[in-house]
Amino acid sequence: RRDGKGKYNDVPSSCATCSFDLIMSDRHPNIQSGSTSRPRYSAGVHNSRRPRSTTPFPEFPDLKTHEELYNFSLDYSETFWGTLARSRLTWSKDFTTVTDSSFETKTFGWFHGGELNASVNCIDRHLNERGEEPALIWEKDEPGESVFYSYRKLSETVGQIGNMLKNSGVKAGDRVTIYLSNSPTAVATMLACARIGAIHNVVFAGFSANALAARINDAQSETVITANTILRGGKLIPAKKTVDEAVTHCPCVRRVFVHFRTEVEVPMGKMDINMDKAMASEPVDCTVENRGSEDTLFMLYTSGSTGAPKGLIHSTAGYLLYANVTFKHAFDYNIGEKFGCVADIGWITGHSYVLYGPLSNGATTLLFESTPQYPDPGRYWEMVERLKLNHIYLSPTALRLLLKSGDGYVKKYNRSSLRKLGCVGEPLNHEAWEWYHKVVGEGRCDIIDTWWQTETGGICISPRPSEVGAEIIPAMPMRPMPGISLALVDNQGKETDAEKGALCIKKPWPGLARSIYGNHDRFLQTYFSNAPGLYYTGDGAHRYNNSHFQIIGRMDDVLNVSGHRLGTAEIEDVMDDHPDVSETAVIGFPHDIKGEGVYAYAVLKDERKSSKKEIEIELKSMIKTRIGGLALPEIILFTPSLPRTRSGKIMRRILRKIAANDFENLGDTSTLADPDVIKFIVDKHKELF
Ligand code: PRX
């Protein structure tokens, strides 16, 4: 199928159902194909605690290798997941059916008839054996300050918050919006919701008041929980002020709990309750609300290619089981080790690998409140030395940033406690992979590049190095996790044997989100219509040797900026509201550190009338206010028009190529409605760089 130059010659250059350019291994600067010719490494040879060739799944002692285990997980998936559900979770009522899920019939249920509670699984069942062991290590923003929370202390805090919420009228099924940064209070609040059956809705505390309000209103959340201020990188972030602004637009909100993270005083209104005081007077025992397997544990908003952010719904049993199993086996976690996922609880990584995966395994989990460069780029490694972390799990953006600061900040600290080095969120390029492996891990630790999504609930592709000696190929997540059956599909949505295509998952697995809050049709349309019978991830992938997968990037109009998902349509909507702007197009462009940066094209209503500099400032301020700083464009290019097909469709593919300085591959532009605009945009782009 290849023409010898590494390009496909019989595949149309763009996908029929989206604007993805299938010949796109060159789209992302960090993706270099041909990884098979790179050096390979053997997993766990230096620091595994496991003897060679024993199955990592104690539930299946006869399955001696990963291959056997993997095949079994697909061939006997009900036995596989049913056995794990009974052995790894504690149920108040056993389930009667493992699953009725089918992507053909679009049914998604797991463990019907069962009842359980996530907080019992994350806390109560560990109390006898591990009550005094650390559950949480809160690495505060203040450098060098950390607070240990035992399982007992966490249990008591959860009990008090649970009672406080119940007494103020929060009931099972209610949505509770949490706008807090990483802290024991935040984690205990999430678990308190789980305990009383309320649905937590964590909103990343970097989102603006407007973005927060949109999420509160969509969730119809009566309760909001925030802090007077948040501390991040030594700066005070006025969280309560943002919430005050947001709730003026949220008629559904009836109470706002305020935790005092700092000494800063904030005005308290009629709806506001001092959370620290309110919980202090509550008993530590809180009655458990048992939940049906399919009852919602939480919702979490994420960006899609069109429309408003979607509130993905995760189930209690299936999600918890998947977070539990993948945490244990992707990272080869052993009890007693300290696991350091530095993600914020506002993202799915924080949900699955700061909270639910580690705590349901009885692990000690880090809550990192700061930033990688505060007070200097040695922050992570100083923390590793001081806390003796055994695992660290971070983003490629942070790695690339730290790599640029040189090896000195790493080598200054003792990293001998580290065993596994994970990353997630974006493609991990070769340079960062090698640096992580050789400099950070001293060639001793396995690199675990994990691919997954808010929707998948937990890790779906990862090198799975718990089999000692398993090969690890740099810069790719490689192997599907047990129970995950991958497929690549072509432009027609049909499964293909080709090396590249749209990444799909064939078989149901328990961690998959169940719906989009209030819009199940959108859920079905987004994930189950492009490739009927399969879960459609929205990512493109490259398959090597028929088995190992490398992720190319998003195929739709979703950006991945520093591992954070942003819908181009969301940013365009804000910019289009500027009175002097007639239309806009937002795309991603390759960015050395962030992986992808935001590049906006804007057409003005009247070029002569407006000052472009002023409009640029106003546009940026609108984006910051309405979405948040993370969506700010690096570049706004003003153009008299946008390249369109004769049928009026904006040619984003061409805009992306220009933004990536790939002028040779613009393709045939003669069929555009106004071919001259390309030359204008290219010249302007060159001026800007
Ligand atoms: O494009 C993929 C990218 O992040 C997207 C999911 O984003 P989100 O739902 O915010 O979850 C991020 C954390 C799980 C994916 O569709 N992505 C995630 N992990 C990787 C990745 N891209 C390449 N390599 C990865 N390891």
From TrEMBL:
Reactions it catalyzes: acetate + ATP + CoA = acetyl-CoA + AMP + diphosphate
UniProt KW keywords: ATP-binding, Ligase, Nucleotide-binding
EC number of the protein: 6.2.1.1
One record GO biological process: acetyl-CoA biosynthetic process from acetate
InterPro entries: Ac_CoA_lig, ACAS_N, AMP-bd_C, AMP-bd_C_sf, AMP-binding_CS, AMP-dep_synth/lig_dom, ANL_N_sf
Keyword Ligase: yes
Region (Disordered): 29-60
AMP-binding enzyme C-terminal domain location: 570-649
AMP-dependent synthetase/ligase domain span: 124-511
Record-level GO cellular component terms: mitochondrion
Entry annotated with the keyword Nucleotide-binding: yes
UniProt domain Acetyl-coenzyme A synthetase N-terminal: residue ranges: 67-122
Comp. bias regions, Polar residues: 30-39
Molecular function via GO: acetate-CoA ligase activity; AMP binding; ATP binding
Family according to the record: Belongs to the ATP-dependent AMP-binding enzyme family.
Name this polypeptide is given: Acetyl-coenzyme A synthetase
Lineage: Eukaryota, Metazoa, Spiralia, Lophotrochozoa, Mollusca
